[in-house]
């Protein structure tokens, strides 16, 4: 294989890349999101500067991807922390767990999504929308919400889906020190809100050493939503280089 041919490959193995070279379109992407208040000192210990904590709020979400070009259906769950950067409010993606290896590899290699393999599920149990997350054989989160209790304003639903998100991109060098270490930003713009609801909700987080969601404890449920959308993810943009910046 010629050098120019190698350069055209975005991932390995060369004979069968880890993920398809496509821009994924999500059809009928379904969200269960629960925003809760937590301990601000805990957040300050895990959110990297120069991001700032204004309110100690965390979004736990389970997302069922019913149809995704290049990846097929899968489910994802995790935590996003409300932050601010240069006066802009957004969310810092703290942890993501999903049951699809190509989507995990693409999220980490192409962008900066903090994805690892897990076993999330989203389903309706009689009159209750249920989201669960297992790591290995152990349950680490259970979320419940009243099923379609109240309509949610589509403008509010769109604002939730399109909030700017920040992630930490770290690529190690061969000596173990980072070759790339950046704070990156992305924002979904191409969204069609098909349905949106709100209602009462509860969230339980369980201790696990390798899936430490419970380290951000639930002190108060603030809001909950159930949203069905079509969307396309936007590319990430670096906004801060840790290797070039001086120590504050």
DSSP summary: helix tally:
4
Morphology:
globular
Low-confidence stretches: none
The pLDDT mean sits at 95
Gyration radius over CA: 18 Å
Distance between the termini: 47 Å
What share of residues is helical? 10-25%
Output the helix-strand order.
HEHEEEHEEEEEHEEEEEE
Q: What amount of the residues lies in strands?
A: over 45%
Total beta-strand segments: 15
Strand pairing plus helix content: what structural class? mainly beta
Largest sheet: 11 strands, mixed
Account of the 3D structure:
The chain has four helices and 15 strands. With 248 residues, the chain is mostly beta strands. Strands 1, 2, 3, 4, 5, 9, 10, 11, 12, 14 and 15 form an eleven-stranded mixed beta sheet that branches. The chain has a four-stranded antiparallel beta sheet with strand order 6-7-8-13, with no helix packed on it. Strand 3 and strand 4 form a beta hairpin.
Briefly say what this structure is.
The chain is mainly β and 248 residues long. It is built from 4 helices and 15 strands. A hairpin with a 2-residue loop joins strand 3 (74-85) and strand 4.
Outline the secondary-structure elements.
Blueprint: H1 3-7, E1 25-37, H2 40-46, E2 57-68, E3 74-85, E4 88-98, H3 101-109, E5 115-117, E6 119-125, E7 128-135, E8 138-146, E9 150-151, H4 154-161, E10 165-172, E11 178-186, E12 190-198, E13 201-205, E14 220-232, E15 237-241
Parallel strand pairs: 4-5, 4-10
Antiparallel strand pairs: 1-2, 1-14, 2-3, 3-4, 6-7, 7-8, 8-13, 9-12, 10-11, 11-15, 12-14
